[in-house]
Every structure is written in C-alpha cells, then in structure tokens.
Amino acid sequence: MAAECRFDPNRFRSALQAAGLRQADVARALGVNPASVAGWATKKPPGRENLLRLAKLLGVSAEWLLGQDPPSTTAPAADTSAAAPTVEGTAEPTVPIALLVDALHIAKQNADALRELVDQMRRLIDRLPVDGR
User: Fold this and answer.
1) Is residue 18 part of a domain?
2) In the chain, what is the straight-line distance between the N-terminal and C-terminal CA atoms, in Å?
C-alpha cells in the first residue's frame, strides 16, 4: 500500500521551531497572509508552490512536510555546511538566507509601491491652486 501523502501540521510546527521562526516570519518571507500560515499549522495545507517555498525556507524537504519520510520527533537537522551561514562569536540565532532574500524582495516591492504613491501625490499637489487662483 502506498504511503499517505498529506501535509503534516505537526511537522510544520516542529520545523518552524527548529528554524527559530514564527508564523509571522514565514508569512512575511513567503508573501502570504498570516492567517494562511496559521491554517497550515492547524488543518489547511499550503498549495504546491507555497509548500516548496516553505520547505526551502525551513530547511526541510517537501516530502518530509508531507509525511513521506520516516517520522521523527523533530525536524531534520539543517545542513550547517551550506544552509544558513552563522556569524561567529554571537549568541544571536541565524536567519536562513532564503528568509533574507524574500525579505529584500518584499522590501523592494514596498519601495516601488511607495515611489508610485509619492509620484501620485506630486501630481495631485501640482493640480492644487496656488495663492487662491
């Protein structure tokens, strides 16, 4: 009989904890609604694209999140040789590179939107009457 292929919320929560991330961090990094991520932690599985991005972000395989790998009590240990570089001499937890890249992408999108808003405001200000004219 083929193995069951279902998203495992327990494994998601375990991987989240192992990665030192919060649901809000995942939502920001993936550009999804925080309510969606909360759903993944309880009952509603992510779509295929978000599943792949989520696995990459958490440093686990999509198969592991789907329960296809043998069960374990914790998320697989991250491969520290290539995954998340550490900063020597700090007690701070490291942030996965994928999270930083996604955060930069979101920041660029926000900057572009802000630039457009400023341009619109300038056009509106240019239309205002000057000295009662």
Assistant:
1) yes
2) 82
- Under the phi-then-psi rule, with left for phi > 0, alpha for psi from -120 to 50, and beta for the rest, what region is 130? beta
pLDDT digits (tens, 9 = 90+) for 87-130: 444 444 455 666 666 677 777 778 888 888 888 988 988 888 88
The per-residue b/e assignment along 104-113, b for 16 or more CB within 10 angstroms, e otherwise, is eeeeeeeeee
Question: Which pLDDT value is given to residue 132?
Answer: 63
Q: Determine if the pTM surpasses 0.90.
A: no
CATH at residue 100: 1.10.260.40
Expressed as residue numbers, the domain containing 44 is 9-71+92-127
Give the Cα separation of 19 and 33 in Å (integer): 20
Residue 51 within a domain: yes
For residue 117, being part of any structural domain is answered with: yes
